[in-house]
Amino acid sequence: MHACFERRFAIVNECDRPEPRLVAQQIAGKFYYMSRFTEERMKSFDGMEPLSPTYLEAFGFECFPNSDVKNAIDFARLHPSKATYRHDGSIRLWQGADYFTLMLVDLGEKDTTVDDGK
């Protein structure tokens, strides 16, 4: 797995549809929707502190720094989903694209860039 993951990207709530639009980035223990750049209203949820987010690794994703756009991350679903619902343990399937790119959230904090191992 690439160093950019570090358990930083998740679907925040179990009732949220697991799709690219609802991927959130974890910064200093709080979550911010990455779709905030294309949907202004998503900023109203800034600073979420969910009890048990589902990290994208559980849905079979790996991520990589985008080679063309600074502070963009490419997500690729390369493995089957191992995410489960807490109430019955059934598999929680991904419901969006298997490959997508999102911009990192920048709150003006020091550690919002991806460590690409360079």
Mind explaining what this structure looks like?
The chain is mainly β and 118 residues long. The protein has one domain (9-103). It has strands at residues 9-11, 23-27, 30-33, 54-55, 61-65, 72-77, 99-103. Residues 110-118 have low confidence and may be disordered.
What is the average per-residue confidence, as pLDDT, rounded to a whole number? 86
Which runs of at least 5 residues are low in confidence (pLDDT < 50)?
110-118
**3D shape:** globular
Q: Note the main sheet.
A: 4 strands, antiparallel
- The largest beta-sheet arranges its strands as 3-2-1-4
Helix content: under 10%
Order of helices and strands: EEEEEEE
First-residue to last-residue Cα separation: 15 Å
Task: Tell me the strand percentage band.
Answer: 25-35%
State the total count of DSSP E strands.
7
From the alpha carbons, calculate the radius of gyration and give it in angstroms. Answer: 14 Å
Number of structurally distinct domains: 1
Summing up helix and strand content along with how strands pair, one would put the structural category as mainly beta
Tally of DSSP helical segments: 0
Summarize the structure.
This protein has 118 residues and is mainly beta. Helix content is 0%, strand content 25%.
Helix and strand topology:
Layout (H helix, E strand, L loop, with lengths): L8 E3 L11 E5 L2 E4 L20 E2 L5 E5 L6 E6 L21 E5 L15
Antiparallel strand pairs: 1-2, 1-4, 2-3, 5-6, 6-7
